[in-house]
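User: Here's a protein and a ligand (MTE). What would the complex look like?
Assistant: Let me lay out the input and then the predicted complex.
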Amino acid sequence: MPLRWNPDLTHADITPETLFRQRRLLMKGVVAGSLSTLLAATVEPLLAAKQAELPTFRKGVITLDEAQTPFKDVSSYTNFYELGSGKSGPSANADRLPLDSWQITIDGAFQQTGSFSLAELLRPHPLEERVYRLRCVEAWSMVIPWVGFPLRDLLQRLQPTQAARYITFETIYDPARLPAQKENVLPWPYREGLRLDEAMHPLTILAVGMYGRQLPPQNGAPLRLVVPWKYGFKSIKSIVRISASYDQPLTTWKQLAPDEYGFYANVNPDVDHPRWPQNKERRIGEFLRRPTLPFNGYADQVAALYQGMDLHKNF
Ligand code: MTE
């Protein structure tokens, strides 16, 4: 039976703002604000300690002169519809993600294809920490120290053939353990894609950790994509398949609502989402909104990839 989903349901419809509003209220009072800081300082090490420390990785490879978002916010305010809707659903259901014996299928237009264990895939790639901004299409943002390695290093190892113009990523599909996948929340499996040059760009990474520790399930353990100049939904979590193709893949959010979520999904303050503007964002933990920067502040590094393209059409 083909998978069905509710075509009227969009990203915003399944994103309750309650938590976000509660946070805003908290931030309004100075006393309340300092209380929450105190709480974060006490609870944070306990929360982070649930994840195993990553053995060795190079620090400070790419960093930012901006305050990092507390781990507790990054790990509890998440979008991962396989693990539940709402921002807190994914962390509440984190233990449902079957992390044992993770296999990644490599197929399509690569010279090296096959099924690899996570260790086999990671072994040749030294890990490094990079601090990136993450900007969600819902107009919130965070600053996160990821630990990972450039996707291009893996792609070079897999050797894309002449036919490879796009790279597609898929998330685990396991409705028996991820009950949301029995429902019409999204078209499953979650699928994302990049043009080959975007995938080969040195800023694009595959992450296995954050804050020096393994990724929590709700943030996409054991392996997720991070593309810092694109809206957060491009950062596909819990990857089990990487394919190369000649044709542009149909990506999940584009399949669901093509007028709202384009294939490119570059952070662009000049192109409004049909239902809300994109020129401002709220950094989680801050009260005042800040302007959204073209390409999320990475224009110097990536704007050339889109030279000559109409970014209103190719949104
Ligand atoms: N990947 C999968 N498999 N499923 C999802 O629901 N949500 C996306 C993206 N990756 C999602 C996903 C969205 S909408 C966002 S904003 C980012 O993950 C959020 O990443 P974070 O929760 O780690 O901040």
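Summary: The two ends are 33 Å apart (CA to CA).
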